[in-house]
Specification:
The complex is a heterodimer of chains A (about 575) and B (about 80).
Chain A (H helix, E strand, L loop, with lengths): L1 E5 L6 H8 L5 E4 L6 E9 L2 E7 L11 H10 L4 E7 L3 H13 L4 E6 L1 H6 L2 E3 L1 H8 L3 E3 L8 H8 L12 H15 E3 L6 H8 L3 H49 L5 H6 L19 H27 L2 H14 L7 H7 L3 H7 L6 H14 L3 H11 L4 H25 L8 E4 L7 H35 L2 H16 L6 H7 L4 H8 L6 H14 L3 H37 L1
Parallel strand pairs in A: 1-4, 1-5, 5-6, 6-8
Antiparallel strand pairs in A: 2-3, 3-4, 7-9
Chain B lengths: L6 E2 L8 E7 L3 H9 L7 E7 L6 E5 L2 E5 L1 H4 L2 E5 L6
Classes of the chains: A alpha/beta (about 575), B alpha+beta (about 80).
Amino acid sequence: MKILLMGNPNVGKSVVFSRLTGVRVIASNYPGTTVSYTRGETKLGEDTAEVIDVPGTYTLEPTSEAEEVALEMLRTGDVVVNVVNATNLERNLYLTLQLLEKGVPVVVALNMWDDTKHLGIDINLDKLRELLGVPVVPTVAVTGEGIKELVENISKAASPRLPVRSRDERWAAVGSIIDQVQHVTHRHHTWRERLSDASVKPLSGGIIALVVLAASFIVIRFIGEGLIGYVFDPLFDNLWAPVLTRLSDLLQGGGFLHDIVIGRLINGEVDFLQSFGLLSSGLYIPFAAVLPYVVSFYLVLSLLEDVGYLPRLAVMVDTVMHRLGLHGYAIIPTLLGFGCNVPAVLATRILESKRERFIAATLISIAIPCAALQAMIFGLVGARGAQYVVIVYGTLFVVWIILGVILRFAVRGFTPELLIEIPPYRLPLWRAMLQKVWMRVSGFLAEAIPIILGAVLVINVLYFFGIFEAIAHFTAPVITNFLGLPEEAVTAVVIGFLRKDVALGMLAPLALSAKQLVVGSVVLAMFFPCIATFVVLLRELGVVNMLKSTGIMIAAALITGGILNLVL
Amino acid sequence: MPYERQITLTRMRAGQSGIVVHLQGGRGLVSRLSALGIIPGKRITKVSSTLMRGPVTIEVDRARVAIGFGMASRILVQPNDESTK
């Protein structure tokens, strides 16, 4: 049996999902689209049923790709659990009535039931059941209240097969039901609502946005550095290093195999950042340098997401984003880009016009450093002083703005306007949140580790046969004269195409000056997307736009690097 | 009173409520707004606007919705009588 969880966005559908299903949850892409959904399993008495968390939708007359997917999935389901926000019955019932017209059995979960009381909303449940003709179960998914009753009622799901109505008729029907079942009395504004309103007002909203972003940054740094300093570095130094040293002795400290597996010894010892072997840097970079930041980034992002802050940020930055030919919602893929550019480029799908998607994807792949790259920037550039890190970030920010303004005027088309619901602030359900973090982090590991190991292997083989020296000679004029980097940096730039964190790691043994490191990091960040991002860009933008986007990247990287080389 | 004063959503003051009278736009605009419950006859309250022609936030059926400035300027509202406020 297939159970579909359907409902408006922000009604706590995912929390109901996480309550119904166990640990075995899979995120998938809907075939032929980039709309993702999660599925899991639940026990119904003796049987196991598949549960699908359908993307949130306001209506079955699709206005977006996610809503089209929701409609497609509806055809495959046996039962629909319609999750309804009890505090906003008017709008939610519109979708409910549409579902009741479809002939699929429905159970209504009246979620956030606890909130109705202090909001002064009184709902006559019996009357609502009678008018809808299907079971209605009040639930509080965050605490788990009512979930058992909900499961029991799945077998009682019914379909009244309402006649198909027009939009106006349906809204009139919703109005009539509301008049009969809902009574709203006077209520006080809660502190959460006050805070909610404050975060979309010009002055207080701006201050809140700055505080939230600064706090996120500090927390990400704190957790990331904490994990590196107290967990991963000790593990590698105390447990893994002795193993590698012994292995190095076994391989007699040199030769082809040694160079590939362990890399070059630095002062007779294995150096995790500089040796560059499969088992040294090849494992250290993904696990100890990058993973801690990926974990802490996704923790903070998921928290902001689940608390409900992101739509408010979209409102606050909308005006600025319009100057860049985007609208406020584009801040969400942009923030995702600070984790990994791949999901970020995929997330540009939430933007409606081709123009916006092109601008957003190009800006992200040029000016937004992913967590992996940032971890390396902090590690390498940060070691020379915090001011250099500030220069790198400042440059990328300025590039983001200038390039955005140029693209806004250069790319034809129009940018539709912002229209989003601002959900109330909510306390997150930790279980559901950690589940999401885990899915994202394991996604990173599955994606990054094979590529990193492959990249290190390829580099070492090419290096061994002197291929890079040839490339270096060929491109040396640009790299040395224009960017002021040594010839050996060419290797890093080439490798940047595979993994940017690995590429930056390759600058480590070159004994660069602080200025050269800054130029190197900025150029690497901007120059080319990594192979994974490249593939997604190709898929999302098509060949022609992908080539345009790449051209912009190369030009922008060279110009910015050249300017930095002159100015610093 | 036969005289009805209608203003666009953008010209309402923060905190002011009114009834949506008309959505001046094509099918796309109307269907996007109505999916969020913004339909003629609905009572709404303006929560805030942002600087430099940024989005307008309103409350409709106890939910808050942010609407881009251009779109908001195509929503005609009949505000509550000032004297009753």
